[in-house]
Write a structure and sequence with these properties.
Length: 60
């Protein structure tokens, strides 16, 4: 098994960014996100999104 096979991460679909308020709340910290309030699904603020990416990144 190569490192490439081990570290493959499935692409996720992100909602379109909002043009302006109202913004959806982050599901972790309740801060405003970059996504529209009307978006249905899990939304994360930029900080939590970055932390989640760090947490799930392949440590190789």
């Amino acid at each position: 098994m190569s490192d490439e096979d081990y570290c493959t991460i499935a692409e996720t679909v992100k909602p379109a960014k909002a043009d302006g308020p109202p913004y959806a709340e982050c599901v972790l910290c309740r801060e405003p996100t970059e996504y529209p309030e009307s978006y249905k699904g899990i939304t994360l603020c930029p900080v939590c999104e970055w932390q989640e990416a760090q947490r799930t990144a392949c440590s190789g």
